[in-house]
Design brief:
186 residues; 0% strand; globular; mainly alpha; 7 helices
């Protein structure tokens, strides 16, 4: 089944509830909403841990996958699916590129950050399930709206996870190096 066939099939599932949800997610996780959410999470992380570094860490770990996705979007410039192929298109993004899905990358990076922050707490399983559910719903909403190919969304999940964990490893390495230099013997 070609990617266009998948989009046509998903578009055939149209109903008012799914329409509203997909359009809501389109707005909330679009760049302006994503920036507001990322800044809010970063400030909250800094306040909860009484540490500016914790806030910066949140911004770096959530923002780096998004920055890489934006750079790839510019470099690859894959056209979005043709909404004329859909029997009942709901939404159209003119002139933008398809790969990778910025919405999917952002929600995946956000979810990974929040899950990693609560990993040793009692609520970790619940938070993990909620992060997975939200990520899957956002990824599927991109297909439902017909603004991304399935391969865009799947690759975005892998990209977000890979860049997030690489950024986290670098952050931890830099943090360890900084702590070792400022506090010898630690």
């Amino acid at each position: 089944m070609a990617e266009e066939d998948v989009l046509v099939w998903i578009n055939g599932l149209r109903n008012p509830v799914l329409d509203g949800l997909a359009l809501f997610l389109q707005v909330v996780f679009a760049p302006p909403g994503a920036v507001i959410i990322a800044v809010s999470v970063s400030v909250a992380a800094g306040l909860l841990k009484s540490s500016v570094a914790a806030g910066i860490k949140a911004a770096v770990l959530i923002g780096t996958p998004c920055l890489v996705a934006w750079l790839l979007k510019v470099l690859i410039a894959r056209p979005r699916p043709d909404t004329a192929l859909l029997p009942d298109p709901l939404f159209h993004i003119g002139g933008a590129t398809s790969f990778p899905s910025g919405h999917t990358v952002f929600v995946m990076a956000l979810g990974l950050f929040v899950v990693m922050e609560v990993a040793h707490r009692r609520i970790a399983r619940v938070v993990c399930v909620l992060a997975i559910v939200l990520t899957v719903i956002v990824a599927l909403s991109r297909l439902y709206l017909g603004v991304h190919y399935p391969s865009d969304v799947l690759a975005s999940l892998v990209l977000a996870a890979a860049v997030f964990f690489l950024a986290r490893a670098i952050w931890n390495l830099i943090g360890f190096t900084w702590r070792s230099r400022s506090h010898p013997g630690v």
